[in-house]
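Justification of resources, computational component.

The compute hours requested in this renewal are based largely on the per-chain cost of generating structure records like the one below. Each record pairs the submitted sequence with a full structure-token output. That output is archived, and it is also reused by downstream analysis tasks.
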Amino acid sequence: MLDEYDFSQAVIGKYAKQYAEGTNIVVLDPDVAKVFTDSAAVNQALRQIIEQRSR
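The structure output for this chain reads:
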């Protein structure tokens, strides 16, 4: 860590609305993350599983 940080350009409440809406963070194991490189890929795979289970 630095001894001092410059917050003169900081924006107050920049992420407040997003945080208030809630977060849902899932940590993938490294081997899974190699296959599913972004949230869109994960969501697509999970939706396919949901669709198959509901048949």
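The longest helix spans residues 39-53. The mean pLDDT is 94.
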